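FAQ: What does a ligand-bound record look like?

Like this one, built around 1,3-dihydroxyacetonephosphate:
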Amino acid sequence: MQRVPLVLGNWKMNGSVQANEALLQGLLGSLSPQADAAIKQGDLQAGVAVPAPYLFQAATRLRSSGLLWGAQDCSNEIAGAFTGEISADMLKDFDCQFALVGHSERRERAAESSDLVGRKLGQLLNNGLMPVVCVGEPLSEREQGSAEDFVVEQVRAATKGLDEQQLAALVIAYEPIWAIGTGRSASSSDAQAMHATIRHELSQQSQSAAQAVRILYGGSVKAATAAELFAQPDIDGALVGGASLDATEFANIIQSACPASQSLH
Ligand code: 13P
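The answer part, i.e. the structure of the complex:
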C-alpha cells in the first residue's frame, strides 16, 4: 500500500517569536520546488509541532504553504478547571492538523501512563485531529533484548478500544529513547524491524488499518541519514527534533521523503 510520506519537526521547548519567524521563513525558502509541488499535490506531508504559545504564529505563517502545524501535547480532558492544560478543541481553534501525544519526554518527566496517552489520543480523534502517538524503549530494554515487547505493549495500551477507522487515522512515531538527542540514530535495519513489529501488532486489530497507519522514525534523524531510513518499507517518514531547528537541514530531510527521490514503498 502506498502511504503518503510524513516528516514532522518537533521543536520541543525551543523558540521565540523572532527566532520562529526566521526559522519558518527559512524553511519555506529552503523547500525544493519538487518538495513544494509534492506537498501541494498531497503526495508528501510535512509540518512542525511548535510550543503552544506559538501556534497562532505558525498558523499565520504556514496557512498558505501546505505545511502542517500542530502541538506537542493535548489534554485528556474536554474543558474546565484543569490549570495549565490545553484541550483538543483549542488546538482545533488554531487550525492545528495534528498533535503529538506520549512523547517519551512527557512519559518520563510528567509520568504519563499509556492509559493517559490513550485518553489524550481519544480527545484528538474526537476533534478530527491526527494523533501522532510516540512510543519507544529505554536503553535498558534494548540491552535486555526486550525492546519489541516493551514497544508492542505501549502500542497495545494506547490503541485499546479504537475501532478500525480510528486506528487507521493514527500516526505512530517510534522513537527509541536512547537515540533521542544523542546523535546515535537506530540503524535503518533495526528501525525497520521495529516498524514491522508495530505494523504486525496493529494488524491483529485490523489488517487494513495496519496498512494505512504511517509509522515515523524519530531519534537523531539528520539529512545525511534520512534517505536510508525512508527507503525501508515500513518507515513512512520521520519525527525530527534537533535537526528541525535548522531550516536547511530540515528542508533536506523533507526532500529525502519526496516520493520521486526514493524507491516506491
Ligand atoms: P532528536 O531528533 O533531537 O533526536 O529528537 C527526536 C525527538 O524526540 C522528536 O520528537
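Follow-up question: can I read anything off the structure? Yes, for example: The mean pLDDT is 96.
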